[in-house]
Amino acid sequence: MEQHQGQAGMDLPPGFRFHPTDEELITHYLAKKVADARFAALAVAEADLNKCEPWDLPSLAKMGEKEWYFFCLKDRKYPTGLRTNRATESGYWKATGKDKDIFRRKALVGMKKTLVFYTGRAPKGEKSGWVMHEYRLHGKLHAAALGFLHGKPASSKVHERTYAACVCLVVTSLIDRSIDRLSRPD
Amino acid sequence: MEQHQGQAGMDLPPGFRFHPTDEELITHYLAKKVADARFAALAVAEADLNKCEPWDLPSLAKMGEKEWYFFCLKDRKYPTGLRTNRATESGYWKATGKDKDIFRRKALVGMKKTLVFYTGRAPKGEKSGWVMHEYRLHGKLHAAALGFLHGKPASSKVHERTYAACVCLVVTSLIDRSIDRLSRPD
């Protein structure tokens, strides 16, 4: 059977793609990465989103044609604060819309935030066509995953730096957010 | 790594799905089936669409959650005619809209027709939520594929019965055709 080589050397027959649901990303990828930093996924690379411009990301990904998946450690803007540093050399990621809750059956397992990249500096940045979805674990699941890693009870203090899976979607033109559903199966 | 068993026993990591483009279906699946009737695909089953109702198809498929893929021999309505028999016991498939041309780079390789299932008998059938996309090879490619099988030149007579790949999309409610783009990567 004809095989297609992904960048990770994964042999997939024609037509097979990495196309996870929101819940699959949380349950099978992010939760595992938070529980064990050594967890490596075929389809998800690692990137520091403060050090790359969005247009650099496709070449850093393991696979993908219009979407590229990364684990990214969340960098705190201020050591004691909760704001995440979202700036790069060329611009910044700005959150848009409302975070979406992600469920596994009836349990809340994570949240998804949508961000758009602006070139320049706030508040005078220029909107680009790059869109990112950032996934994070729900508080209880997150604490449980860290508890598993370190053998501490789930109520232990949350670490200063935490993994969040980030998904970057490329769009070639300025479009409304309804298009971010096109590639995501329900 | 956690694996998910498809009905065909295919081991895929979480989040990997069969999600081919129109061109991939034509080039890597239909053209091969026409060239060699013994060609078997992991993700594409065989079905006789005149003998099953659309609601029977998911259980006959090799895999799929909202879309099910089949090779189907086109049955001629009349032995000497070109009309395809699209009736089942409960109803019939009716073409809608305009056929779409499918290209591989700049070459026309196939066409895609959209059909909707109606219960009852024409012209008084009742529209259902079942939608099918039927793919067929472009004439030259088709003749070339048959030529390959039988060692005859490409201009040889087309066989009376030919394979067309049929894709069934399930929709749970009556919706407009713009939704048929939701699951198909460009």
What's the domain count of chain A? 1
Name given to the CATH homologous superfamily of chain A: NAC domain
State the end-to-end distance of chain A.
30 Å
Greatest contact between two chains:
A-B, 26 and 27 residues
Average pLDDT rating of chain A: 74
Q: Looking across the biggest beta sheet of chain A, what order are the strands in? A: 4-5-9-8-7-6
- The quaternary structure here is homodimer
- CATH class of chain A, named Mainly Beta
Percent in strands of chain A: 25-35%
Description:
Chains A, B: Keywords: DNA-binding, Nucleus, Transcription, Transcription regulation. Chains A, B: Pfam families: NAM. The structure is a homodimer of 186-residue chains. By secondary structure, the first copy, chain A, is of the alpha+beta class. The first copy, chain A, has one domain (20-162): NAC domain (Metal Binding Protein, Guanine Nucleotide Exchange Factor, Chain A, Beta Complex), CATH 2.170.150.80. Chain A contains three helices and nine strands; from the N terminus they run βββαβαββββαβ. A six-stranded mixed beta sheet of chain A has the order 4-5-9-8-7-6. In chain A, helix 1 packs parallel to helix 3. The model of chain A is unreliable at 1-8, 148-160 and 171-186 (pLDDT under 50). The A-B interface holds A 1-2, 12-21, 24-25, 27-29, 41-43, 65-66, 181-183, 185 and B 1-2, 12-21, 24-25, 27-29, 41-43, 65-66, 181-183, 185-186. Strand 3 (16-18) of chain A pairs antiparallel with strand 3 of chain B.
